[in-house]
Amino acid sequence: MITLDTVSTRDWVTLALGVTGALTTYLSQKDRLPSWARKWLKRIGAKRITDAIERAGAIAELSSDERRQQAVIYLQKICIAELGFPVPQSIANLLVEHVYQQWKRVRR
User: Rounded distance, CA 88 to CA 10, Å?
Assistant: First the structure.
C-alpha cells in the first residue's frame, strides 16, 4: 500500500508542476472566445462592436439589459449595412458581451 511518506519528492514536484500547469491553462482560457466566435470577431472587428455598445450606452432611459439588447440590434444592422452579411442574434449577443467586458475593464 502506498502512503504519503513513501512517495518520493520527485513525484510531489511533478504533481505540483502538473497542477500548476493545468490551473494556468484554465485561467488563461477563461476569458477567451471559442475559435468559431473569434472568427466572427475578426470579420466584424472589435471597433464596430465597441461603437454599437457606446451608441446603446448613450440612450439614458434604457436599463442595462435593454442597452445590451440595443447594442446587439445595432451590431446586426451595422453588419448588414457595412459588411453585407447578417449576424445571428446569439453570436452578436456573445460578441457584445465579450467586448463589453473588455471595454469595461479599460474604462476603470
Answer: 52
Question: For residues 59 and 70, what is the distance between their CA atoms, to the nearest angstrom?
Answer: 9
Contacts (Cβ under 8 Å, ≥6 apart) of 84:
none
Express each pLDDT in 30-86 by its tens digit: 667 888 888 999 999 989 999 999 999 888 888 888 999 999 999 999 999 998 999
| Closest by CA position to 57, among listed 45, 48, 47, 66 | 66
Q: Which three cell numbers stand for residue 18?
A: 502538473
Amino acid identity of residue 37, one-letter, is A
Question: Cα(49)–Cα(75) distance, rounded to whole angstroms?
Answer: 6
Residue-by-residue DSSP string for 90-105:
HHHHHHHHHHHHHHHH
CB 85, CB 36: distance < 8 Å: no
